[in-house]
């Protein structure tokens, strides 16, 4: 085995065999699935204590409005609010609804009194009931025959479909929402990978330097080999983790859908959708066809292209940053000193994630365009633009700039690393580091 | 035959000069000691020989040729601050370092098996370095340093952290390596090891070499004309001074000091006329005495 392969092998195996790596890799997909499933399950478990509400209606107009449901039970009493407030009866009720005037004249007249703060659910339930009732009554007062039916007929729900035309004019059902979701997820994953694995490169370098391991190793390998071995080894750790996440997520989703007995028959949805029928028995409420549309868009989404570009941009961005992190790690004497030098490196990454969020709103705007060309932000911003469709020349240009940049940054980092890794007890400045780049030898 | 030659090396750090015109020759197949108080510049010199730092001026030659980074591949170096990956297992780490030095996996495994058995540390193979004590980790590092049989070995403070038993083991191994044809340079404060191991030494103090040469010659040159003598009967001091006298059941034990550079035989002759001799031994100063004397007073020679 060549020496650089040996180093890559060591960096890779020691990290992949770590319990923390194994736990994180296998637990994350489970956690994500859990984060989606638990709220769904929790929402089904309702607060089943029934709340009693007393209605004091001084107008006598709303006697039949308040229908009980599983959470709220209404009771009408004929008593003045003052006497009820002081009576002992109020102990056994959770809230009092007081209506002193005709609400069609004064919509703000109704009040809910209670000892504990009234929940939002009760407030909206009560106002919903009153609103519907008053609207209906006002309509009835207009005295137009069959007006109710006419109103029903005019109710519409508009859903603008987004369809992308391929080069050959072929139609692709797309979804702007889906594009944003996929774009943001991949941008965040790249962001996290660059930060996490870049930091690992840096701390690995610092560790080798402070423990003086490097003094022994440098007698057998070139500093550049040592640095590249570390960077490549850790990149492979990142790719392994990513691949495992994808595989595990697919397995988990398949397992869950089978377990819930709802195999998502996308073909059927697609047919139903194009025929304008939403009568397929969906396992959930899908009134406007939003879900089925998302599913179709998901099916039409080019995962292979996105996957390949994701890996390319991840590697480019990672190599660019990791080499600079390695240079910083080699220049300092201990872990705590890394902070002041790593800040200028983390700032553009953080900026990139903000640029990505704004680019999602306007994926072809100048901010999105320039940030997807600048190598320090392009791996993250381009991921957001990608699902919206990016011209091929822009992709090629962006990747080209990125590749040239990381070749340049590795060269510079190699020069700094070579000098820095064997330098001790010297206060390092940026100026000093720049000087090392141009050392001969 | 000179293996390594250091010529007039100067190294300046911000604030102080670590090495000031240091020169030394190291003959092939000898043990060379670098002595000196803390902060004298020994480690800096070792790092220059290992191409870890570059000298500001001066040159280093190996086999008559200028030392390059390539040559460092043939040097086995044991740094003072032990460099091993703390989280890695002993066996894996030793194997990794050996392969980096260019050994094949098979060769490395064979050699490691031999040394681990010799040092009786086979059961450490699957332990992590952080589970070992300082001395234990040092044994592992010693093995990784010599495993690929380099011609030149450099040990920085090899005895620090070792108990007397292991220090002895290490001394035996260093001598065995010398017998095997290797040239060894080591720095130390342990003066008894210098007398036992070193052929030549350089004593560095305040960035300069204050004493250099063959150990036996240095000790002879520092001889003070002191002798330990055991006799049958009493001596009366005429051509020498008696420093101490003690009567035992064997006879009389004296520590004598000869006057004005008499040769051993002249003194011996005059003693034999006075009494029957049981033993006669010249007391040479220990390296420890010479070290302290040289470092605390003005340098006598350079």
Kindly describe this structure:
The complex is a heterodimer of chains A (441) and B (302). Chain A has 441 residues and is an alpha/beta fold. Chain A folds into two domains: 51-145, D-Maltodextrin-Binding Protein, domain 2 (3-Layer(aba) Sandwich), CATH 3.40.190.10; 174-437, no CATH class. Chain A has helices spanning 3-16, 19-44, 81-86, 120-142, 147-154, 176-210, 213-217, 223-259, 266-274, 290-300, 303-331, 338-361, 366-371, 378-385, 392-420, 430-437, and strands spanning 51-57, 72-76, 95-99, 111-113, 162-165, 171-174. In chain A, a hairpin with a 5-residue loop joins strand 5 and strand 6 (171-174). The longest helix of chain A is centred in the middle third of the chain and has 37 residues, at 223-259. Chain A is elongated. Mean pLDDT of chain A is 80; it is low at 261-266 and 276-287. In chain B, 32% of the residues lie in helices and 31% in strands. Chain B is built from nine helices and 14 strands. Chain B has helices spanning 42-49, 90-100, 105-118, 134-146, 164-179, 191-197, 215-221, 264-274, 287-296; strands spanning 2-13, 16-27, 31-35, 57-62, 65-66, 75-78, 152-156, 183-188, 200-205, 208-214, 226-231, 240-247, 252-258, 277-283. Chain B has a six-stranded mixed β-sheet, sandwiched between helices. In chain B, strand 12 (240-247) and strand 13 (252-258) form a beta hairpin. The radius of gyration of chain B is 23 Å and the shape is globular. Chain B starts with a strand and ends in a 6-residue tail after the last helix. The mean pLDDT of chain B is 86. The A-B interface holds A 1, 3, 6-7, 10, 14, 211-221, 422, 425-426 and B 13-14, 47, 50, 52-53, 72-73, 75, 77, 79, 81-88, 96-97, 99-102, 105, 141, 144-145.
